[in-house]
Amino acid sequence: MNSHEIDYKIYGHDVQFVEVELDPRETVIAEAGAMLFMEEGISFEAKMGDGSNPGGSIFEKLISAGSRLLTGESIFITHFTNNGYGKRHVAFSAPYPGTIVPLNLHQLGGRVIVQKDAFLCAALGTKLSITLNRKLGSGIFGGEGFILQKLEGDGMAFIHAGGSVIERQLNNETLRVDTGCVVGFESSIDFSIEQAGGLRSMLFGGEGLFLATLRGTGKVWIQSMPIRKLIRELSTASPNAHKESGRNIFGD
Q1: Measured CA distances, 233 to 9, 83, 214, 225, 241 (Å)
Q2: CATH class held by domain 7-237
Q3: What distance in Å separates the CA atoms of residue 56 and residue 194, rounded to the nearest whole number?
Q4: Where are the domains of the chain?
Q5: Average pLDDT, the chain
Q6: What is the mean pLDDT of residues 9-29?
């Protein structure tokens, strides 16, 4: 199934949203709860599946829904369709501060691999599935990158990332990245999770026990502040620091 051709604009800086323009009968799919606003004439429906294979059996849809459970996402994907006359707009926002990255899948070889929680929305016809890291042991112990999402199609897809996004073009090169900071990469890139170094570096280097290693030729997208790292830093903040802050505010 060819993807619908959608136009879009991305607004904002630290907290972005993407506004999609739909012609009559055009559809965009999105994660449940991602919709920010929609104009009159657009209807939406939660479906079990991405709609990339409209003739698929119920068994195939159940398999697809079960794979989404592994990623921690809802088994349902919301389909937004312009059932009115003329162009209509619907907007989607990321669930936390950061950057929205537009991906033209046709220009990227028809396939991109992203972190399991990175997908935001895409043109109807985009296929969503999961892919497992081939190195199961390091993937499990590394904590990130064991279960990844695969986006396939020939239209536009949008992913979100925490903080700022760095796009790197590798040319038969190797790049090592904090496991939580990899947002996505082209399918031509070999991705694995490997030990960070010697025992001393692993225990006292502050970079964790594992690093993501990307090798080959293709594009890589990296996020500066993954949400898991932000949550971890906030949760480990000293309770005494909050008390001191309260004393300064109220003059106690």
Answers
A1: 33, 45, 26, 11, 13
A2: alpha beta
A3: 38
A4: 7-237
A5: 81
A6: 94
